[in-house]
Amino acid sequence: MKTLLPTSTAGSLPKPSWLAEPETLWSPWKLQGDELISGKQDALRLSLQQQQLAGIDIVSDGEQSRQHFVTTFIEHLSGVDFNNRKTVRIRNRYDASVPTVVGPVSRPKPVFVEDAKFLRSQTNQPIKWALPGPMTMIDTLYDDHYKSREQLAWEFAKILNQEAKDLEAAGVDIIQFDEPAFNVFFDEVNEWGIKCLERAIEGLKCETAVHICYGYGIKANTDWKKTLGSQWRQYEEIFPKLQQSNIDIISLECHNSRVPLELLELIRGKKVMVGAIDVATDSIETPEEVAATLRKALQYVDADKLYPCTNCGMAPLSRQVATGKLNALAAGAEIVRNELLNTAVKGAAAL
Ligand SMILES: [Zn+2]
After folding, report:
1. CA of residue 135 to ligand 1 center, whole Å
2. Cα-to-centroid distance, 348 and ligand 1 (Å)
3. Å from CA of 286 to ligand 1 middle
4. What distance in angstroms lies between residue 322's CA and the mean position of ligand 1's atoms?
5. Of all helices (H) and strands (E), which one includes residue 79?
6. Is 250 inside a domain boundary?
7. What is the CATH number of the domain that holds 269?
8. In what order do the strands lie in the sheet with 249-253?
9. What is the residue range of 185's domain?
10. Is residue 99 part of a domain?
11. How many domains does the chain have?
12. CA distance 258 to 175
């Protein structure tokens, strides 16, 4: 990226009410068949325009063609039986009825590649595509086949690598893996989670990112956050190994969170997508609030490696709130960008 402080979002944006029930996760589609296919494409166009009007530099599909960031990908794989459901605890936080792994998992055909080609055809801006990470995938399933979290994650990593290579060929510039589970299962992350992530990006030439957050702004997550105390130091457990990994970009929750930003020093050298928008509240940040978070992060992230972003996806918010937050993100980044450029000009004049 040549732009200083290029802005992007963590991934999802609200869907139009004619496509799916708004402000709801796993919202059922309101259209069917060919109407659904063209409806998803129209929603993608709107989502892209929403980002472009706000001035977002790295755009995404807003996840308009997916019901959920993990489930939709898994639905396209074989070896998982969606009719055979078991109740499990997701990220040690809440119970959910999930599908069962009943045999070897595989990807019969590409999952998101047609959607990515469509997005590519709509814009010349850099595009980012989000996929679920291997550890977060296994955490939303009951495994009755491999009976090993590590082995199932490794199999998913191989499948994700196939998908990522197809997305890269479709013209995606940054492939992001969503790993909120990295914030929970530290020992496993360090033992095999990061290794699985590296298997998922093996051989890719495009940039790669991992998104690690404290979850969507839903009740189960906000209740969990209340139990985490005054300092959230979860990132500290996994940053040293992540810093050593091959992943290019790390996407984090920073704004309004209790994450001590000095922890970012532990991943110095990596590009960091700094979450400067809180997705767990409807109140819209001012550009100055966004700028304040970015300035704090600049103490620990080199300016050419700082990517202003949102804390997480905005799917559960209203479109109006999401638009306000996108505008604030772009405007806040612009304030800090100008400050950095002015400092650079003054520095050059002083030489
Ligand atoms: Zn997230």
Report:
1. 14
2. 39
3. 21
4. 15
5. strand 78-90
6. yes
7. 3.20.20.210
8. 128-132, 174-178, 207-212, 249-253, 271-275, 306-309
9. 33-69+107-136+145-344
10. no
11. 1
12. 27
